[in-house]
Write a structure and sequence with these properties.
The protein is of the alpha/beta class and 277 residues long. Strand 2 and strand 3 form a beta hairpin. Helix 4 runs parallel beside helix 5. The longest helix is centred in the last third of the chain and has 14 residues. The chain is globular and about 50 Å long. It starts with a strand and ends with a strand.
Length: 277
């Protein structure tokens, strides 16, 4: 696969500004991001890269920056999935869950074994937000519950929920690549999960537990839909935002009738759990 790298150098290079640009670029097809000391590097398949669309996507927020420089260039043509596989290592969460690739041996000391094919979809477990969400799942009674994993990426959270006793799990992602990867991973783990391609409009029915590991701006925009789709007494678990954003996330949740239940944090990232009255 041929990828194009877009380097964004901006000031102030704050976490909020990185998150804003990440959200905007993700909407036009950028699927991988890396923080840099002076900004952000974003990656998109070359066959869908559009310089004008990239500029147009960030134009509405240019005013928040003191300076902003954008430069795009094609990356060397190589098998990026193969490159990722070379560096993919298993990860253990709270001593209870091991996330590994198919070519790694299972660890009998971890009761929850999850196989994730290391492809370019978010949610291998190596990012703090994924591990935080899995930690939250350990504290939720999932037995016979209906679960929605919104923005499922690889499907790792949906798979974990199913293996922890959920009756039915629905996983939704707007990215076709992620949907295919989540379906493959669900099959590899022997879990029956309904994986749907789409955005918030694809949510149908009501759920006992809703998981959303996305980013602050999308969460704030979509939380009313989550609250509406959540059964009374249900649990909403969110991540993908920094600790500095917890107050605004919590305020929005409470406006929607959701009460704070538990937060866990790691490396300035946080996961917040809420319950519906």
């Amino acid at each position: 696969m041929q990828y194009t790298e877009t380097q964004l150098i901006f000031s102030p290079a704050t976490p909020d500004n990185r998150e804003i640009l990440t959200a905007l670029l993700a909407e036009i097809g950028y699927d991988s991001f890396m923080e840099t000391p002076n900004g952000l590097s974003a990656y998109i398949l070359t066959n869908i890269f559009d310089a004008a669309a990239t500029q147009a996507a960030i134009e509405p927020v240019e005013g928040i920056f003191e300076s902003l420089k954008i430069e795009s260039k094609p990356m060397p043509d190589k098998d990026w999935n193969a490159e990722w596989e070379k560096s993919f290592t298993p990860i253990t969460v709270a001593g209870k869950c091991r996330i590994r690739a198919p070519f790694h041996e299972p660890d009998a000391t971890c009761p929850l074994d999850i196989i994730i094919e290391p492809k370019m979809a978010f949610g291998t477990g190596h990012h703090a937000t994924t591990t935080l969400m899995i930690q939250q799942l350990f504290d939720i009674d999932l037995k016979d519950k209906t679960v929605l994993d919104m923005g499922c990426g690889t499907g790792v959270l949906a798979i974990a929920a199913k293996k922890l006793g959920a009756q039915s799990v629905t996983a939704i992602d707007i990215d076709h690549w992620s949907v295919e990867n989540a379906q493959e991973n669900a099959a590899s783990n022997g879990t029956q999960i309904a994986v749907i391609e789409g955005g918030v409009e694809a949510i149908s029915g009501h759920f006992d537990v809703i998981l959303a590991n996305i980013n602050r701006n999308i969460l704030l925009d979509q939380m009313p839909v989550y609250a509406s789709a959540l059964n009374a007494g249900g649990v909403l678990c969110l991540s993908g935002f920094y600790t500095a954003d917890l107050d605004i996330i919590s305020q929005r949740a409470q406006e929607l009738g959701l009460q704070p239940a538990k937060t866990v944090s790691q490396d300035d990232w946080v996961s917040a759990k809420f319950t519906k009255l």
